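Annex B, item 7. Sequence and structure tokens for protein A, then protein B.
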Amino acid sequence: MTEFKIDFFELLFLAESVIPRGPIARSMCFGSFSENHYHKMNDKQRVQFFKHVKEQSGFKQTNEQCLHFYNRFNPDNQYKVCCMYKGKPEIVYCYLHDGQYRVSMDSFVDRKYIESIDKVNYKSS
């Protein structure tokens, strides 16, 4: 598939138009913000994106996708999870969603491997 590049501010406006309330294509696009675009943004952009999207009239935390977006982008919900897996220490950056330390919507760190959890402080400036 061909990749298209858009400017950050264009991405903000795109987000407004695809907040979950309609067709599956919009829903998939909205989901890609948390699953893909989050990792392409710096901390300042993440905070700005989070603030902008959560203020839109269609954004409702009662919607599962909106809640997931809120938890993924919320700067006060980011964690550094230290775990032991197959005898090797690993550090995984996660967010808390549905009581689990998630890496993505479909992936989380099993609590039996967690050694410690530290809150991550965003650098928003």
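Protein B:
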Amino acid sequence: MRKVVMFNLVSVDGFFAGPDGNIDWHVVDAEFNRAAVDMIKPFDTIVFGRVTYQLFEGYWPNAATDPATSREDRIIAERINEMAKVVFSKTLTTVAWKNTRLLHEIAPDEIAKWKQEAGKDMVIYGSGTIVRQLTDLGLIDEYQILVNPVVLGQGKLLFADAKSVKLQLRDAKPFRSGNVLLTYQPG
């Protein structure tokens, strides 16, 4: 059975974006970039909300061939560009990025069917609204939270207004940068 995995970078105080949506506070270094190449391997589908989809669409399609892009990001770009992508948006009318499907509503039964299909796991990057909705529906099977050694004090909380869910820690991986990757499962 395929899993829906949420992966997000957050500040120590739980924000996944700054007040204006910025992510320039992410602590990313060579060690993280090497790990990111391996961390994308278990997935063949990315689930997005509109904002994150547009951010990714503005960067990753060109990153694969841009000589200024790091080797690791070129590898990730090639992988992301080939993966299936699902974007949930009530405002977009079309999507142009290769292998992208646009849906206007979250249908829990449809997502349950996706989990039964053959293939690798599905990942949600960013997309706070989608994360909260799928959390509330009990559709996220694993939470991967990369805690950055930064206190923002304000911004967009990842789980603002989400229903309470008890999580069990499955793994914790510290990085030399001070980042810590925490992996949780519901229950």
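Comment on protein B: Helices lie at 30-39, 50-63, 71-82, 108-116, 128-136.
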